[in-house]
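Q: How would the structure tokens look for this protein?
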Amino acid sequence: MPATAAVSAYCRVTERTESVDSETSAEKTVAEAPRPAAKETRRLGRPVYLLTICQFLYYAGVSVDLTLTAVVGLEMAPAAALATLPLTLMTVTGTIASYATGMLSARYGHRAVLAVGACIAVAGGLVSMLAVQADSFFTLCVGTGMVGVYRSTGGYFRFLAADLVPEASRARALSTVLCGGVAAAIIGPLAATESSGIMGAQFAGSYLLVSCLAFAVVPVILAVRPASPHTTEADPDVEEETARATRVRDVVHTSDFRRAFCLLAVSTGVMTMLMAVGPIGSKHAGHSLSQGAMVIQWHMVGMFAPALFSGRLTTAWGPRWTGMLGAFLLVTGAGIGSLSTGMTAFMLSLGLVGVGWNLTYVSGSAYAVRCYPRGKGGRVQATIEGSTACVGAMASLSANMVFSQLGWAGTNLAALVLPLILCMWLAVARNPEREPATA
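A: Here is the predicted structure in token form.
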């Protein structure tokens, strides 16, 4: 009996020990389990909101140049044919610098390159101001060309935001940064005209405003830091570690890269062409200058206001369906523009084109950031931004020629062809599982 009692007591002690160990192990497993991803994506963090401010300052400054440079060039040019040369140089230098901006970001980091770009715009605005005061058309071309270099940095604010948030929040970060363009679309043109006479010489104050807005970007972009000070060996400071940027040849064959390029190129080309000839088409239709300005203002609101929800839509639906919706709206807007030249048709057409641009732009950007691990996309970004800028430049330079040959209705019919093809391609294309980012 004593032996039996001892064995029974030992079994009871062993069971209690195993039970305690099991409870401790379960508690440890619960404690070590990762928190749900939904809790991590409720707030995007301070860096994204700082980059939204940078995007607002960027668009506000660029809109001043876009609003006035053609008018100033017409007054200062030695020949009427050269009136748009300053604006053309801004587009050309921005296109060339788009690729260089991404490559330099891959080497030195986004913050440093974006800050340098803003400093170049400060100098460019001051040169343009001096050109107006001295009535020097050549100097104006130099100043606007320098501001064009700054224009090449505008698309990289969203890529930096996508690098500084968790994986599930990247689409929301992309669209949130674009929200800065909503206020800039309203404030920028108004500020351009209101500040035009504050420096004595007409429009000198407007170019000083360009310098001030660009200068304000510098301290804000330098204040951007990752939301968490803690980094892991596998995921170091994603914005600063750029030594092993993803190579373009490793991702160019992927469906993510192809869809990113097609969505961004088509949306930029269609939007740029119709926006460029919108005021001219409005004037030819007999509308007043104020009505033409209203059309462009609503177009820009359509471009940026959907950023309030397009990121969440892309997260919920996926970039494929969001891109299809955006392409469909581009087709619808161009189709309405081809049917009527009334004021309502103009506003509805360019407004829908703006909304379609936003959805395709965000979905294309979402595909782009899938092509590389966070913080390693400088080369891929450079290729996509540079190519997209080339398409936009060609659309801008050819818009007037197309309009002169086909008129407003014909230009819209020509513009809806590519987004129609894009929409059908996305509809019938295979939808494989997301391809892993190349390390």
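Residues 9 and 415 are 87 Å apart (CA to CA).

DSSP finds 18 helices and no strands in the chain.

Upvote if useful.
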